[in-house]
Structure formats: structure tokens, C-alpha cells
Amino acid sequence: MENRSEKWNFQGNKELNASTITVGGVYNMLMDSINNEDKRPVVRLGRVDPTDNPLFRTSPVAPDAVAIAVHSYNFNCYPPTLGLPEAKRAIADHLSSDLPYKLSPEDVFLTIGGTQAIDIILPVLARSSANILLPRPGYPQYEFRANCCLLEVRYFDLLPERGWEVDIDSLEAQADENTVAMVLISPSSPCGNVFTYQHLKRVAETARRLGIFVISDEVYAHVAFGSIPFVRMGVFSSIVPVITIGSLSKRWFVPGWRIGWIATCDPHGIFQKSGILKNIINYLEITPDPPTFVQAAIPQILERTKDDFHSNNLNILKEAANIFYDGCKEIPCLRSPHKPEGAMVAMVEIDFSQIEGIIDDVDFCTKLAKEESVILFPGVTVGLKNWLRISLAVDLSNLEEGLSRIKAFSLRHAKIA
Fold it and tell me: Using the 8-state DSSP alphabet, how is residue 353 labeled?
């Protein structure tokens, strides 16, 4: 029989192969570098999963609300495509408490976590020659999804010496007539900063001048423990239309529940006039939906969680930020330009003038894993080579132990004068 395999005319999506530096892939690589002869426990300061920390447990309201929904037998059905009306209403009310106007349930769409929200919004924007502006450093899922739907990515810089503010000049330089939107993450993952009201307003005014809208990633909304209060980008939606991405994952410590949302903050109806709102609805028609019973629990979770649950957790994160920042001062080869004030992560720069035998951030993290059984993420995974991303969502004793081992590693590789 003739072998026809050489004539087959199909191949895989090359853009998927181009997205090789994933958080999961790097984590697996680093775990494979661990020296099995080192009997010390592995200190994981890379993955940002607050459930790894025994101090972080969700509010008792949350599992109780899910249990009530399950035992009611009323939510074993398929959910409505756009989300349960009562869940949409609760999220709209929750967001509206921070805004100068009231959102309606029709402004809210339920998603399977914040990641699916990204996976919906970016293909909606993809068209011939279109580009999107992403922060550097930033969350890599935006780049991966953009590559898969052939949406050109351009980067604007965040300035570490200015508390990771947006470099407005960089933002303006990247935009052109084919730019459709920019992404802003606040509180910021991976930088750990919180943008001020004044800076967000300036970003909104710049976006308006450029004729683009803002995708505001607020998965860490209200996870702010420094001197700067959290402000929703939707506050400025009278200046520029805003699509907000939110989630229960981080603030309620339930990332495995996969509940997120898209909210359109657009008092002038620009998304409706442009067709973007219709495209979001159409895309939701062909995507899977979050579990019905978890959606049904959302109103109770948002309305009944007590303030002290959140304040206690912020105090823990603030203590972690202090331990991290003070500990970095004791490590000659690391420089932390800004004490974390929000989210659950921080960025630290490697000073190669202080060490030898290490060529870049990936090499640093690989050798650190092998020699000290400590997992850090290289900055290249979030777009900033020769930096490190450190998770603060860990047990405080583990954070202290990890910093101690990093210091030992630094001294072992210190340049000899």
C-alpha cells in the first residue's frame, strides 16, 4: 500500500509551540532540578497559590454557601450562558460599591476563573493587523492567548524606580491606529504595587487620547496592605471605557473553584456601539460555563463575608512583605526596588556584579533549586529578564527559611575580590 503520510497537509499551531516559557513548564523544570540527596524540605517561593499557606483558609461563609446550594438540589442544571442572574446581580452590586455609578447585572458575565476571562476577551479583539499593549513585566497568560489568536503584542514598561508606575512615554510610543486596548493589572502581579488614584487617572486620559480602551485585571482587588488604597479602574470609565476582570480566587483563597467574571464599565455605551459587547456574548455561547452550584453560592459569599476575614489576611501579607523586603537587604546579589504593597508577589533584581558562575535568571533559579531546594521563578517568565518573581503567599517561617538559603547561595557564589 502506498504510504500517503508524506502527502498529508496538516500541522500543529506554531503559535502554541512559540509559547514555551510557561509558569507551569518552568515550575516543573525547577522541581526536576532539586537534588534528591538534600533531605531538607523544598521551599516553594515561586507558585502563587495562597492555599499552600496553612494560615490562609477561605471564609467559613464560602463552603457553607456552596453546601447549601448543593443540598438544595436546585443547581444541578446547566447554568445560563451568561451566568446565573442572582450571581450577576451580586457581583454588579459588589463592584458598584467602589464606583461612582451603579453597574447592572447585564454588565457582568461569569467565567471559569480570571484565566477564561482573558481567553474570551482577547479573541474578541483579534482582527487583521490589530495589536494590544501589555505591561512589562506582566501576567504571561495575556501573551500566550494573544499569540494563539494572532493578536499582535506590544509592550509598555513599568518603572521599578517609580514604584512600578506605567511609563506613559513607552505606552504612547507603542500605540498606533491598529491598537485596540491596553492591559493594566492592579494590584499588580507580578510587581506587588498598587497604582494611585492620580496615576490611574493619567493612564485613563492617555488611553482616551490614544483611542483605546482599558482591560483592568483586578483579580487581586482590595489585596492592598500598604499606604496606597485600591482604586478600581472603572472609576475612570467616564473618561475611557473599561473591561474589568475579577475573581474569587485570591481574595477568598479558592483558586481551585475557578470562579471569575468580566464586567463592562462603560456608562457611555461605547462597547455596545462598537460591537465588542455583542462579540463577548457570542463568544460566551461557545465556551464552557462555571459550575452552577458555585455560581449560586456567590451572593452569600460576597454579602456575608466579614471585614475581619479580609483585614486579618492583609495583616499576614503585610508581615510577609516586611520579611521579604528586610531579608533582601541582607542578600548582596538581590535588589528590591520597592516594598510590596499589594497582591501576593514581588519582583527583585539580580545584581550580577556581586556573583559569578551564573549567567542569567534562569540559571540562578536552576542552581538555587539544585543547591538549596528553593523554588523561585525567573523574571523572564513574566517578561523581565534577570529579575526574580517571589511569592508572598507562603508560610512566614518558610519565607524566612527560603531567604536564609538564598543568602547562603549568594555567599557561595559571591565574586572573590
Answer: G
pLDDT mean over 99-124: 96
Chain centroid, CA 65 distance in Å: 26
Residue 268 CA to residue 272 CA, distance in Å, equals 9
Q: For residue 158, list its beta bridge partners.
A: 166
Amino acid at the residue 26 = V
Cell of 394: 507562603
Compute the average pLDDT of residues 229-242: 98
Q: Which of 89, 179, 175, 91 is nearest to 127 (CA)?
A: 179
To which residue does cell 505591561 refer?
135
Cα 162 to Cα 164: distance, rounded to the nearest angstrom: 5
Say what angle helices 292-304 and 85-96 make with each other, to 10 degrees: 30
Separation between Cα atoms, residue 212 and residue 293, nearest integer Å: 37
- Contacts of residue 276, defined as CB under 8 A and 6 or more positions apart, other chains included, come to 124, 125
Edge-to-edge strand ranges of the sheet holding 377-378: 334-335, 345-350, 387-391, 377-378
Residue 20 has φ and ψ, to the nearest 5°, of -90, -25
Task: Give the 3-state secondary structure of residue 183.
Answer: strand
pLDDT given at position 29 = 85
- DSSP code of 78? P
Question: What are the pLDDT digits (tens) for 15-36?
Answer: 444 444 567 778 888 888 888 8
Nearest to 233 by CA among 250, 251, 220: 220
- Respond yes or no on whether the N-terminal peptide bond of residue 288 is cis (omega within 30° of 0): no
Q: Does residue 234 sit in helix, strand or coil? A: helix
